[in-house]
Each structure stands twice: as structure tokens, then as C-alpha cells.
Amino acid sequence: MSTAIQPQGMERYEPALPEAAPVLDAPVRMVTLLEDRAQVTRGGTVRVRAGQNRVVVHGVAPVLQDVSLRAEVVSGQARVADVRIRRSLRIRTADKPEAARVLEERIEALRLEREQVLEDQARARQRFERVHQMLVLGASEIPEDAGWGMGAAAQWQDTFDALFRKARQLRESALKATFTAERLAEEIAALMRQRQAMDRVDHQVVGWLEVDVLAEAEGEVEVRIHYVVPNALWRPLHSARLLAGSRVHVASSAAVWQDTGEDWKEAELRFSTARSSLGIEPPLLRADLLTVKKKSETVVVQARQVQVQKAGLGSAPASGAAAPVAPASVDLPGVDDGGETRNLKAPGRNTILSDGRPNIIPLFTFEAEAESSLVAFPELENKVFLRAVARNTSPNPVLAGPVELLQENGFVGWTQTLFVAPQEKFELSFGPEESVRIQREEKRESQLNPVSKWNEATARLTLYLSNLSGTPRTVAVTERLPVSEIEHVKIELDREKTSGSPVLDENGFCTWKVELPANGHGRLHLAYKMSTAPGVQSA
Question: Would you say 428 and 379 are in contact if contact means Cβ atoms under 8 Å apart?
Fold first, then answer.
């Protein structure tokens, strides 16, 4: 017969909670999540008498912003005269001698078990060292015995097979003991934390609302309450699956975190890209002093890297969208709405607990035709990638954020996308194509033109492509040429020494369409000349 442990203790509030006032049951009805906060709407019905009534709403987030708190009567012959938040410190002193004794016995038992596991691990390692020494000595004696005509190959094989089998068993035992000891250490640490929690006083800040309602007559009134809380945010998260290389299924979701002190149970969730924290004050005007400076006879040029980033392919650009800058790593960036505030509604009702953990809330999905192709950028990576170009057929935009890549055989990896407006094309990379290999070689030469006195630097690139599969492949290979912004530096493509007729755009990207036969090879050459005028110096 087991006896349950009954904790005994005391709980008090400073200041004390209101007891005489009627309680308004107003659960969270709707939550609008912003980039760094959330707007909460509660609603409920309470019966009031004629005149002034004070009702209380328990379980409210104590971190809510007081200035954002407002209440209104939705239905009923009444009005709200005032609403305010009250906070109290809940002090709970728990005395659990029996529970503490049980924990201490469990901790001591785990410690003894861990010590025994560590002893077994040490013995297994010692035995493994001895077997290892026997193997080394045996291997060193084989040439000597063979020189004297002693021993047989079958005998040596049987002996070494037995020793290797024993060594593997000992190593597996030592490894298993290591994992067991780590697990026991984690259990002991968790129980120690529980035991220490019994020795301290538990303090928690709680909050409740006091609503003053002026009613014309006795009856039921519906009250709606609005306020803003920090410690809540959301970020877009997407998933893209490539189906048979011809269609893309995209699912857009919202990752939600909240640690406000109140749980949102079965609430309607809305996600907004509005930035209420941004100021609207105009910039301060300062004097701008203009001075005259003698023009330098020496031209100093600087070579810099410029990222050409564009999520969509220009079929339906968003109005007022600024030029995006891609982050250096895949993470959860700030919400980019393309310059226009967006509001997305989650289907159904959802529950978000106040534990600070991420919650994935589905928003919308769409499926579109995709044009898949193989592309390569050898300057960045000596690999060929599978790229899919599709159109956003959803009425909602795809917000900037990380994208989980999937194919029919499972997970591929992670990438990121910038803002994609409705009906705009976008592209995603679904990982490298291992059956196509590529290598890159680069040579540079520099000489002074004796006639023009211009410094001429020549660059020659050679690309080697191999198709290891049994089917023909078409690869779009892109290389880059420098682009000059001043007349003192000129870049010219040497088309005679360049393979084929590549397409060269205004950003300096040179692209070929390479047809690789089954189990075939290919080679590309690119040559260009960069000339700098006399007196030009590099920064």
C-alpha cells in the first residue's frame, strides 16, 4: 500500500487579492502579434447591478503596458468608467520533508549506480589496453617467427581474430558505460535542482484588472479589454518541397514566442508587420559647410564586392519596396514586408503557452509550376546546384525568412528568401547535384603598354566539367567580370579566347549554357583584360 506525499505549505499575496468583487471570466479572444510585442484582446460577460460595479479579471500578464490598457462595453446598458491593473507578489513557502527525503534517497541511489558504472568503465579500458599491447607484441613477433620458419598463417589468423574481437567488445563496453554515466549525471543534476527548489521561498508577480462599470439597470453586460504586452514576437518561416522537378509546394508559417506570464488558449491569432516602435520624428537640421579643395592629379581607385540581391525575378515588383540586403547566415531576421504593412490571419484557433518556447503556426500554402535547372557559380563554390524557379500564386506575399528545403526523398537543407510579392517569380536552390563535377583554374598576368602607358592586367579562367551520370545534363555556368564605374579603368572581354558566345549582363555576370553528354566532359575558357590609366593607384 503506497501513501501519496501531501505537501504542506503557506501562500500569501502582498498586497492581498480582492475577494468581495465579482469576477469577470474574460479569456483571451484575439492576439495580434507584432515584431517585438503583442496586442491582446479579452472578452467576457458578467452580471451587474444598477449603478457602479467593480469587477475583477484574474490571470492577466503582469508585464502589460499600463498606458495601453483600455476597456469598453460591447453589449448591455452600461459603460466603463475606469480600468486599471493591479500587481501583487505571491509568496509561497512550501514544507515538504517527506518529498525531500524521497529525492535525497533517489539522488544517493543514482550516485552509487554512477560510481559502479565508472568503475566498470575503468576496468574495460584497462583490459582494452592490455589486449592492445598483446596485439602490438604479437604483430612485432610475426616477422621474427617467420624468419625462423616457426608458426602458421592459420594459427596467427585465429589468434588475431580472437584478440580483435575481444578488443571490440571492450571498447563497446567502455563506450556504453560512458553514455550511461552521462545520463546518470544529468538525472542527478535535475533531482538536485528539484531538491534545492524546496529550500527557497517561491516569489511570483501576478496581475489582475479592476474594471469600474456604470450600469443603468441590472443585467448582463459584455466587456472587451485591450492591452499591449512585451516579451512576445513572431517571425516568418517557410517550407518548400520540390515535386518531381516540375512543381513546388510552399507552406508559410509563423514562429511564435511569448513569455508574458499569461497563456493564450484557443485564441485567434493575427500577425502584423507594423513597427509601432519606430519613431516618426523628423531628422534634426544641421549646418552643412562647403569648402573648396584642389583637385588631385592622382586617381585612387578601390575594388569592392557588391552583392546583387533580388528575391523575385521582376515579374510583379512590390511598390515602394527598398533594396533588400541578405543576412550572412540563415537565421530569423526582422520582418520585411516590402514597404507595406501586412496582416496575416492564422486559420482556426491556437494555444500559445507562456514558456518562451517556439510555436509553429501554419498561415497559408500554395503550389505552383516550377522550372528546374542545373546552375553553377564556380567562383563561389565548385559545385553544381539544382535550382527551381516558380511563381507566388498565393494572394499573400512570401515574407523574408528562412526556408526549409524538401524533396520527395526527404530533407535537403535550409536557405533563405527575401520578400516575394503575389504573382512574382522567385527561385530556390535545392542542394548540389553530385553527378556533375566542376573544377576552376585562374591565371593572371600584368604588363605595361609601352605606347599608351596604361597598365594592362589579363585574366584567364578555365572551367572543367564532368558528367558522371548516364543521362545528358544541361548546366548554366555563371562567371563574373569586374565592372568599372570610372573612365580611368576599362574592362574588355576577349571574345576570341572565350569559349562560345556567353551572355554578359550589365552587372558583369557571364553565363553559358553547357550541354554535357552522358559520362562526358566539357571545358570553358574565359579571358578579359583590365586596363588602368597612368597615375591610377589602388587603395
Answer: no
DSSP 430-499: EEEEEEEEEEEEEEEEEEE-TTT--EEEEEEEEEEEEE-SSS-EEEEEEEE-----STTEEEEE-SSSS-
Any domain includes 13: yes
Three-state DSSP class for residue 389:
strand
Quick one: pLDDT at residue 199?
Answer: 64
The total of structural domains in the chain comes to 4
Instruction: Strands of 346-451 (E only): list them.
Output: 350-352, 359-376, 383-391, 401-407, 410-417, 425-448
pTM of the entire predicted model: 0.66
Considering all CA atoms of the chain, what is the largest pairwise distance in Å, rounded to the nearest integer? 118
Residue 15: is the preceding peptide bond cis (ω within 30°)?
yes
301 domain residue, yes or no: no
Which residues, 6+ apart, have CB-to-CB distance to 488 below 8 Å?
299, 301, 532, 533, 536
- Which of 184-198, 316-330, 470-484 is predicted least confidently? 316-330
In a shared domain, residues 265 and 411: yes
The answer on pLDDT for 397 being more than 70 is: yes
Average pLDDT over residues 191-217: 81
pLDDT at 362: 96
Which residue shows C-alpha cell 513569455? 259
Residue where a domain terminates, one of 432, 467, 500: 432
